Amino acid sequence: MNETVLLIAALAAVMLITIIYIAVKDRETSRKLSMMEAGIDGLNRELFKMAKEIETLEKMIEEGRLTAAEEASDTETLDRMVNRKLKPFVLEVEHLGGQIGELERIKERLDALETKIRQALFANEHTAPDEQKILQLHAQGMDAESIAKQLRLGKGEVELVLKFSKLGGFS
Q1: Are 162 and 139 in contact (CB under 8 A)?
Q2: CA pair distance 12, 149, nearest whole angstrom
Q3: Averaged pLDDT of the chain
Q4: Are 113 and 85 in contact (CB under 8 A)?
Q5: How far apart are CA 18 and CA 50, in angstroms?
Q6: CA-closest candidate to residue 82, choices 61, 114, 108, 54
Q7: Residue 110 in contact with residue 25, Cβ under 8 Å?
Q8: Does residue 126 surpass a pLDDT of 70?
Q9: How many Cβ atoms from other residues are within 10 Å of residue 147's Cβ?
Q10: Cβ-Cβ contacts under 8 Å for 92 (sequence gap 6 or more)
């Protein structure tokens, strides 16, 4: 009898811990996503600045304000500038890719936990018919030992259900 109560309490504790774990991981995931969004916004601002600088240099070339030597020098400078500005962008994209992979692993783990919770709840929901059968057989005058043998349950479990029914725990 005490074992069943302890088992139910342990199951409830595990479910509570699982729910708290999921909530914490969800908050952590949301925080990481907001950090990624901020990083992407910063990268977009940098790309916009670079596009404006390139546009300015192209206008200068079209207007003929740059000579061929200056153009070659500016092209090299432009290439260095683009490489220098793109390097952080590439590193950030790689970092974001790693974080996305981590988020996918967390999502898979959460999905697995949700499946286990559903299975536990499903199993718990399907114990009620045993309880109803126990009460029906008891109402027919059978004792706990006979009910346990007929339903292939433990005698303690049958006695527990009968005691709960006397306390008004079952309808």
Answers
A1: no
A2: 29
A3: 79
A4: no
A5: 48
A6: 54
A7: yes
A8: no
A9: 23
A10: 39, 43
CB-based contact 85:43 (threshold 8 Å): no
Alpha-carbon distance of 43 to 111, in angstroms, equals: 32
| Cβ count within 10 A of residue 148 | 19
Report DSSP state, residue 142: -
DSSP per residue, 49-102:
HHHHHHHHHHHHHHHT-S-HHHHHHHHHHHHHHHHHHHHHHHHHHHHHHHHHHH
Residue 40 has pLDDT above 60, yes or no: yes
- Classify burial at 46, counting beta carbons within 10 Å of its beta carbon; exposed 0-12, middle 13-18, buried 19 or more: middle
Phi and psi at residue 44, to the nearest 5°: -65, -40
User: Using an 8 Å Cβ cutoff, are 54 and 128 in contact?
Assistant: no
pTM: 0.35
Mean pLDDT on 118-136: 70
- What pLDDT score does 141 carry? 92
Name the nearest CA neighbour of 5 among 164, 165, 171. 164
**Higher-scoring residue by pLDDT: 168, 60:** 60
Q: Is 161 exposed, middle or buried (0-12, 13-18, 19+ CB in 10 A)?
A: buried
